Amino acid sequence: MEKNSYIEPVYLISVVADILGVHPQTLRQYEREGLIKPSRTNGKIRLYSQKDINHIKYVLTLTKEIGVNLAGVDIILQLNEKINELENIIATYKNKNQHLDNLSVVPDKKALVIQKSSLKLVIVKEED
Predict the structure, then answer these.
(1) What does the alpha-carbon distance between residue 15 and residue 10 come to, in Å, rounded to a whole number?
(2) Residues 66-93 pLDDT 10s
(3) Residue 67 and residue 56: Cα distance in Å, rounded?
(4) pLDDT given at position 1
(5) Furthest-apart CA pair in the chain: how many Å?
(6) Of 4, 51, 88, 107, which cross-links 111 as Cys (Cβ 3.0–4.6 Å)?
(7) Which one, of 57, 18, 15, 52, lies nearest residue 36 by Cα?
């Protein structure tokens, strides 16, 4: 099975530090703070993927260019993760809504529409 080179951890900490122009201790500090999570070999050597490098670039942008401290970076990363989760939930509901829109359901008995939600779901109440 072919591995995705974007997520495959292949870079040592010294190589990543050189690529990004930072000291390896900076990367170790980011890891201690929980801002990055490099993979590790059985011998506990840190390995970074291209995805990890792009993530570190984002952290460096926040800290060096914008001036956000590490605690702020942590909050921003958590909020970004939560936004992604919520966007996935929204996409799921949009797909379910589309599926419901494609169904043509007609009640067997007379029905009175008492509420229509923003998701285009119709709640019906049978007339007596």
Answers:
(1) 10
(2) 999 999 999 999 999 999 999 999 999 8
(3) 15
(4) 43
(5) 77
(6) 107
(7) 52
Determine which helix (DSSP H) or strand (DSSP E) holds 46, and give its type and residue range: strand 46-48
Question: CB 73: neighbour CB atoms within 10 A?
Answer: 20
Phi and psi, residue 123, nearest 5°: -100, 130
Residue 80: its pLDDT value, please?
Answer: 96
Interacting residues of 24 by C-beta distance below 8 A, sequence separation 6+: 13, 14, 17
71 class by beta-carbon count within 10 Å (0-12 exposed, 13-18 middle, 19+ buried): exposed
Q: In residues, how long is the chain?
A: 128
- What's the whole-model pTM score? 0.70
Q: How far apart are CA 128 and CA 109, in angstroms?
A: 10
Q: Beta strands 111-116 and 122-126: pairing type? A: antiparallel
